[in-house]
Amino acid sequence: MIAALADRGKRPVVIMVPSSLHEKWPRDFAVFKERVIKRAGDTSLRAEPVASALDFFRLIDSEAKSRPRIIFLKHGAFHVQNIDQWVRLALIKRAISGMHLGEKRSALPRFAAGLLRTKSSYNDPELFAKLLRIPNRDWRHVINDHYKDRQLTETPVPEAIQKVLDSSDIDVAGLRDCLRDLPARESVSIDERLERARHAINDALRTMWPSTLAKVRFRSPLLILDEAHHLKNPATRLASLFVTDDAREDAGTITGALEGSFERMMFLTATPFQLGHHELLNVIGRFRGVAWKTLSQGTKQEFETELASLGTTLDRAQHRAAELDKRWSSLRPEDVAGPNDGEPSVEDWWRDTASNPSTRPERIQIVMRAFEQARNAMKEAEAPLRKWVIRHVRDPVLPNTSVPRRSRQVGRAISLSPDGSGGLPVGDEALLPFLLAARAQAIVVREGLRAGRATFAEGLASSYEAFLETRRGEPVHEDEEEAAKTFASDKFVSRYVEKLAAALPDEAAYAQHPKIAPLVTRVLDLWRHREKVVVFCHYRETGRAIVRHLSAAMEKQLWSDAAQKFELKYADVRKAVIDFGARFDTDGGMRQPLDDELTRRLALYAELNDEEREQVHDVVRRFVRTPLFVARYFDIRARSGKETLQVAFDTRDLSGVALGEKIDGFLKFIARRCSPRERHDYLDALVRMQPGIRGETQRDIDDDLSQMKSINVMPNIRLANGLVKQETRQRLMLAFNTPFFPEVLVASSVLAEGVDLHLSCRHVIHHDLSWNPSTLEQRTGRVDRIGAIAETVAKPIEVFLPYVGGTQDEKQFRVVMDRERWFQVLMGADYRTDESFTEKAAERIPLPMAAAKALAFDLSVRSACDGPKHEESPTGAKQAT
Question: Where are the beta strands (DSSP E) in 82-216?
């Protein structure tokens, strides 16, 4: 923002973002602008999202006074497929120039709408006829005169496009042939001919697009590129924009289109050390594209020399780290055993060994020497790396407290009354399927690399429903990027898997799955204590199963608790609770007390207009009258009135926050922390939620629920996976961040990046683990953000990592926890998932936390006013490269 305001030429700052964040960045900036910018001259700062290179060029061509100071540009904006109808029409005009078409020339405008696929928007042949006759630079005025209700603010054909059309750097011979083949009148083959012409237009565009990008000339004070790990491969379209590669010119792609356009460049990524060190160097290497002539210090040659030196240093560091990893793998449990062969404590063993390594056996001394060499090499690389990488690691305690920021609950800790430590037990009724899975898995391990990954065992550990999807060894319905190389066909494996399927309990008992049952119990307990929770799972079938089993259990729990609380028969309590909810209707006894209370609380917020106030009344009224709210917050035996309402508003959740405080916090948030657009989005999301007013469950209301195949779903439980439209996911996310429904969000990894779920939730359950530790960190990061509810209530974020003991689930837990310790040491580690590899990895001695901390790069930047530095977590939150 400072760069945009300080630039005298009013040149725009460009922020490049992935398509998944193209709405979030402008929305967050609008809030920042409204709430933070106070100086009158700065409030006029305008930002605009841009989805295509053409729109970007149009803004660059516009006058400085009408140009936005910040442009949010999509990563894929420069793809040729984003070229619109006006440039295509200009290309057609260029192709027919000088052609003798006779009456076909006058017929062309009639086919133009079909040729350009604009029949639903611009379809007047008279307009196309005019445009084909006049200079392209005059098109905007003609189009605006023709369509008064859709005014173009920028020139339809950007200057860079026009330069190419005016030059000889374009081959339109194929397009000319297709246009010559168009009929003068309607024809039975017109659709086929138009399709051929469209293909010819696309071919011509692909040949002219590199020349177009090469002719673009602009200068910006700053580029910010989010999710910069996408630059790790120089051959990708995005990475090639910043550096010219002459070797690729003949491939029909332009490189270096943005080279020299930016005076400063900043790259953002949350996962710099998930990259291999060569990939990290590739990302840093994109700085070659900066406008070197504008820099007061440093030259491109000096940068190249420094980058090469950094590469050599990182090579040495990673070689030493890999050597340590190899030596560490030689350690066995007996090497770290406690006194008298007691239970090994890796941390204690490490402390004793590091203080006096010479007393240890030679094999352990070799490990210790490898550690010292790795630590020295990492520290040697840290100094030059600090110049290019700033890495923020969130403090492990909550601000101004000694409360841990996160509390990790592993294995059977998800149970309400865990019996000991370790994984979740497998009951007798489920023992046979898991034994058969172990037998089949042993065969897969014996087969080695060829066998790949035993997804059937992972599916069984997730849910019975997921197993039925994975048993065939075919691609499964999952939303995470990590590909599952399933087991190769083997008659012995197949035989065991078929026996396993036959040994599954009846479908009615699927809810008693060893991991599903304690999950449902834990979520119900959090719900009964008025807490929100997000559950992440890998398999779509598991997500649907959790929603189904949880809904059934919650409905049963709701009426059972209500019957006990209000001392009513189970058959009578439903009517009594629903009748109390009806008191909030127009003529009900609770309507006026609620309206009065909300009016009193809303009086503090002049920022809200009358319509928004009415929406707040409607939203709160619709939610507090639902059985799910009534049964937990009200005494239905009490008389209607202010006192009864106040008791409900004073009811506190597990975090110690009262319902009234939650509503006050929500009102303050939408009034004073949201921009008008964001406020509208929040209220709209809540208005569109279906709270089940009469106590009924919901079905097929939205595309997340339509997956449930006519299964009734409780209205406070929602599903967000890859089959749910982006619009619906956005609405669910907004509603989840309020005190209202949904209260339980079951999500796949489509919600693990670029979304905020932290305003009303501090409980996250990783029902399915991942082989990649950064995946778990990204998921947890959805509720661990600046301004999280955990900071407000000064209570830790509860992170549950359940796993089924003695199964593939426990193996995955051990492997990912080990990888988490090595996450900052082995850059770009190959997270293999084949059985032969993970079987050995699960037996490794965990790297002690102290050792991991000593090896990790410290790339933080701290000021003198910062507090004491606490121990860093093994994986970080958000970093800037």
Answer: none
Residue pair 540/721 in contact (Cβ under 8 Å)? The answer is yes
Whether residue 62 is found in the same domain as residue 103 = no
How sure is the predictor about 865, in pLDDT bands with cuts at 50, 70 and 90? very low
Kindly list the strands in the beta sheet with 47-50, ordered across the sheet, starting from the edge strand earlier in the chain.
47-50, 70-74, 13-17, 223-225, 265-269, 879-880, 390-391
Of 32, 47, 72, the domain-final residue: 72
Summarised one tens digit per residue, pLDDT across range 504-516 is: 999 999 999 999 9
Residue 478, SS3 per DSSP: strand
Q: Are 542 and 767 in contact (CB under 8 A)?
A: yes
Can you tell me the distance from the alpha carbon of 405 to that of 359, in angstroms, rounded to the nearest whole number? 39
Nearest to 577 by CA among 636, 533, 629, 525: 636
CA distances from residue 192 to 182, 189, 196, 464, 552 in whole angstroms, order as listed: 10, 5, 6, 51, 55
Higher local confidence (pLDDT), 392 or 564? 564
- Reported in sequence order, the residue ranges of 106-186 that DSSP labels E, i.e. its strands, are none
Pairing state between β 47-50 and 13-17: unpaired
Q: What is the pLDDT of residue 703?
A: 67
Q: Using CB atoms within 10 Å of the CB of residue 225, give its burial: 0 to 12 exposed, 13 to 18 middle, 19+ buried.
A: buried
Task: With beta carbons less than 8 A apart as the criterion, state whether 786 and 392 touch.
Answer: no
**Residues 126 and 197 occupy one common structural domain:** yes
338 located within any domain: no
Q: In this structure, are 15 and 136 located in the same domain? A: no
For every residue of 228-250, which 3-state class applies, written as one string? HHHHCCCCCHHHHCCCCCHHHHH
Cβ-count burial of 380 within 10 angstroms (0-12 exposed, 13-18 middle, 19+ buried)?
middle
Pick from 430, 470, 474: which is nearest to 807 by CA?
Answer: 430
Look at residues 40, 72, 104 and tell me which one is the last residue of a structural domain: 72
Residues 104, 26 share a domain: no
CB 517 within 8 Å of CB 509: no
Domain limits for position 203: 83-214
**DSSP code of residue 536:** E
Residue that is written with structure tokens 């709270």 in the block: 691
Q: What is the mean pLDDT of residues 860-878?
A: 46
Q: Sign of dihedral through CA atoms 155, 160, 161, 164?
A: positive
The total of structural domains in the chain comes to 3
Whether 395 has a pLDDT exceeding 70, the answer reads: yes
- Answer whether residue 189 is part of any domain: yes
Same domain, 497 and 432: yes
Residue 488 to residues 101, 449, 480, 654, 789, Cα–Cα distance (Å): 62, 10, 21, 48, 47
Structure tokens at 8: 């005298």
Neighbour order of strands in the sheet with 761-766: 406-410, 797-801, 761-766, 532-536, 744-747, 717-720
Helix (H, G, I), strand (E, B) or coil at 202: helix
pLDDT in tens, 562-596: 999 999 998 899 999 999 999 999 888 999 999 99
Cα dihedral 852, 855, 857, 861, rounded to 10, equals: 70
Residue 626 inside a domain? The answer is no
Write down the pLDDT at residue 702.
63
Please state, rounded to an integer, the average pLDDT across all residues of the chain: 87
Which stretch of 202-211, 439-448, 485-494, 788-797 has the lowest confidence by average pLDDT?
485-494
| 391 lies in some domain | no
Whole-model pTM: value is 0.86
Shared domain for 117 and 209, answered yes or no, is yes
To which residue do tokens 């909810």 refer? 581
3-state secondary structure 582-616: HHHCCCCCCHHHHHHHHHHHHCCCCCCCHHHHHHH
Per-residue pLDDT at 869 exceeds 70? no
Task: State the average pLDDT over residues 789-815.
Answer: 97
Residues 89 and 158 in one domain: yes
Q: Which residues pair with 397 in a beta bridge?
A: 404
